[in-house]
């Protein structure tokens, strides 16, 4: 990175905002970035008090010209993403926006138009896209490397305790104070895998989707889904995308996306940047993939607009359509009976759904929702099909 350090403002210092603070400290140390202000409704730690502001408007009004930010990082509750990003764009700033970028499909086009009008860019924090393995799989799919009958799959078996869903008023909610939140397993904790799988399949825009089938359930005492099946059928001739995701696993494992076809398969553990390619004859090759920091990529883009963004807002339309399909389905119903066992005590307690890891694998192998697999806790009435506007 050349030139002076990029001036960065961070909106939201807690939760994932704390991760951004640590990353920004590293970027400051190597001269890539300089944190010029933070915004939070709560009082910050003492070390941030001198640059703390209660609103973005206050920050922009009070910081001296030499400290005016070039980039605003938005790491706040999901329902605040659009107004904060729009405010930053209108002020002539580029934006790093945490995922999911918007809580509704209609908001996606609104924010895109705001960026176009401002002549500024929005990078979305789908971290899996920073790993080059996603591009490798996408290029292989586009080249027809797996032969006919190709499917893209996303698997995520995570474990979350009561404290995770009690960390804030919006955690685990579909709505809050009349506004969408969309904090389900597929739209927040494991959204990286969903977005990466769509990218691998070449499904990036709303027009690329014919229909989305969902089956949403919950074992946690929350409003949103924590155990979800998705099938995204493409509008064109590309492969469908299957997702089987949960936060009710007995132990957390590395999530993966995989391409399968008659000519072989390729499974990418996207949090580890490793993959295994399997040929039709069963021979395997293990690969490792480099990673690019998404904020550093945005800084490079701001320095030279010829540098392409890795995950621009325009490439997240299909994900926003999947989010819309999930939010359009009825609220997930609780899983009752003996299928759920709670482990641990108090806020550290977490639910384990019986045979969930095998159930996720079976759903991906067959391409069928949980309720078609003979799983006792699944319900056919939880299955819904959504199509984008104009295809309904």
TrEMBL record:
Q: Per UniProt, which keywords does this protein have? A: Oxidoreductase
Entry-linked InterPro entries: Gfo/Idh/MocA-like_OxRdtase_N (IPR000683), Gfo/Idh/MocA_oxidrdct_glycsds (IPR050463), NAD(P)-bd_dom_sf (IPR036291)
Q: Where is the Gfo/Idh/MocA-like oxidoreductase N-terminal domain?
A: 7-126
Q: Which domain of life is it from?
A: Bacteria
Protein's UniProt name = Dehydrogenase
> Which organism is this protein's natural source?
Brachybacterium fresconis
């Amino acid at each position: 990175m050349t030139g002076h350090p990029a001036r960065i403002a961070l909106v939201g210092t807690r939760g994932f905002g704390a991760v951004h603070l640590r990353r920004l400290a590293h970027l400051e140390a190597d001269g890539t970035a300089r944190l010029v202000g933070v915004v939070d409704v709560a009082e910050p730690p003492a070390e941030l008090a001198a640059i703390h502001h209660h609103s973005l408007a206050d920050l922009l009004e009070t910081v001296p010209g030499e400290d005016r930010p070039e980039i605003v990082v938005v790491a706040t509750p999901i329902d605040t993403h659009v107004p904060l990003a729009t405010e930053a764009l209108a002020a002539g700033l580029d934006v790093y926006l945490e995922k999911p970028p918007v809580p509704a499909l209609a908001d996606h086009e609104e924010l895109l138009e705001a960026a176009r009008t401002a002549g500024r860019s929005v990078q979305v924090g789908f971290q899996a896209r920073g790993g080059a393995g996603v591009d490798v799989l996408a290029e292989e799919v586009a080249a027809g490397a797996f032969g006919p009958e190709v499917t893209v799959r996303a698997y995520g078996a995570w474990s979350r305790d009561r404290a995770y869903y009690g960390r804030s008023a919006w955690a685990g909610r579909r709505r809050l104070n009349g506004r969408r939140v969309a904090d389900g397993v597929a739209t927040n904790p494991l959204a990286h895998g969903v977005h990466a799988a769509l990218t691998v399949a070449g499904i990036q825009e709303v027009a690329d989707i014919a229909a989305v089938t969902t089956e949403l359930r919950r074992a946690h005492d929350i409003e949103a889904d924590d155990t979800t099946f998705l099938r995204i059928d493409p509008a064109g001739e590309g492969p469908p995308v299957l997702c089987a995701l949960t936060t009710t696993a007995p132990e957390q494992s590395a999530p993966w996306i995989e391409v399968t076809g008659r000519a072989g398969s390729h499974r990418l553990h996207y949090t580890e940047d490793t993959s295994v390619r399997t040929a039709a004859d069963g021979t395997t090759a293990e690969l490792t993939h480099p990673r690019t920091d998404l904020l550093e990529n945005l800084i490079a883009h701001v320095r030279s607009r010829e540098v392409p963004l890795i995950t621009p807002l325009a490439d997240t339309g299909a994900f926003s359509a999947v989010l819309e399909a999930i939010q359009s389905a009825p609220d997930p119903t609780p899983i009752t009976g003996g299928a759920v066992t709670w482990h641990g005590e108090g806020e550290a307690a977490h639910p384990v759904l019986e045979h969930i890891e095998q159930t996720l694998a079976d759903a991906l192998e067959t391409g069928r929702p949980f309720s078609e697999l003979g799983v006792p806790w699944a319900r056919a009435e939880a299955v819904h099909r959504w199509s984008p506007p104009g295809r309904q």
